[in-house]
Design a protein that fits this description.
Rossmann fold; 2 domains; alpha/beta; 28% helix
Amino acid sequence: MPLKTLFLNPPSFENFDGGAGSRWPATREIESYWYPVWLAYPAGMLEGARLLDAPPHHVSGAETIEIAKEYEFLVLFTSTPGFPGDILLSRAIKQANPKIKIAFVGPHVSVLPEKSLRDCPEIDFICRKEFDYAIVDYAKGKPLADIPGVSFLKDGTVVHNPDAPQIQDLDALPHVTEVYKRDLDVTKYNVPFLLNPYVSLYTTRGCPAQCTFCLWPQTLSGHPWRKRSSDDVAAEMAKAKQLWPEVKEFFFDDDTFNIQKARTIELCTKLKSSAMNLATSRFLKISRKARPSNAPASSLKTATSSAWSSTATSSWACRARRTRPSTIPSRSPRNSTSKPFRFRWRMPIPAPSCTTMR
């Protein structure tokens, strides 16, 4: 049996959404939360594990400490704004449960592994970048010295194991929607530009662009673009619709959903053929002055007119490539000077209409 593991998106500031699934950590004027997608993958691979998303479920620090008493291994997804509070929480959890092992994951510890370990002695180890299999290996008894991608203290010296290879077979990972159904209440999640209730998941990982402002490729998923098969995504979507008939929108929260034309068309065609009657959205990269090669008209047309059954309503959330003044160097392969913009449109299929918001 693996260690009894608690995956934790910890309690934090009031109305702060900055944990295990938030691209834009911030305290918001309205209550708004993203799903802890990253934690859901390893949580689905360990028997007896639980995913606790404290902020949207309004679980307090004291309640979290009590819950952690029942577990042998804690995996905490931290953020830069939340790190000082996460140190205090992990210290209190260790005091209440001295035998528990604690691992920190997330962008902050990936970028600052040594500082994080020295700032918080209660951390037994951290995982750098993708942590799915490293966490599972440790819970199943593999020694830290043999696990790629982890950092830990040994006799006062920080040990950085070699980086883990990026996960190539995304179909081998569990469906996060099954973990959501087991451990989360989907009615607790809300994002203002999505229909409510909504469910988000990934169909790809990574993004080849070098945009310095973007969190996930720089710190967790990396730049090589990897995809789930269209069959695997379609199967998860069909099951998700059965799990939550009340859900109004499913959001593909990929870094760049439409980077490969053939795959975009193939997936949308399979979603249509399954006749699921879904509302679905995803991130696209579109330029105001010129549509980039990774968003050709044919793939956009297929995605909007052929992705779902004729009775469905598709809802898209799109983002432009953000830009900077021309005097500031950019690592982006396309150094656009157009103004940044955001727009979305909703369209009953097959009668499209478009409303632009900037």
